[in-house]
Amino acid sequence: MFEKVLIAEDHESANISVRKTLEDLGVAKAQYVYYCDDALTWMQNALKNSQPYDLLITDLYFEEDYSKQKLDGGADLIKAIKKEQPELKVIVFSAESRPAAISNLFKELSIDAYVRKARNDAQTLKQAINAVYRGAKYI
What we know:
- The protein contains five helices and five strands.
- α4 links the parallel β4 (89-94) and β5.
- The chain is an alpha/beta fold.
- It has a five-stranded parallel beta sheet, with helices on both faces.
- The chain starts with a strand and ends in a 6-residue tail after the last helix.
């Protein structure tokens, strides 16, 4: 199973749910951030320290607040991280439901899985994590 996972999610309840899901799967080290800029910085620091993350789980949409951000959401985060760590596995966990938008995430950003926030999403996220760990794509 993945050993080091970064969660980029701006809603605390979703963050807690994702961490619990990872804990249930036996992931040893799951860390989280609320901002995309922070996620990129953490990823860069992990690479510099030769302790890269194995998996990124990110939302697509982040609410604006008092903290100005350079990255405008999950898609920008994925693009920036893939430039530095192209082999990183990425799961998008979002409320986005438009098939064309989801398809573009696979085509343009080379994500590994997409899980929609909806009923039974924790179980679906577990399935996606297991599939990605085995090297498969998951929708």
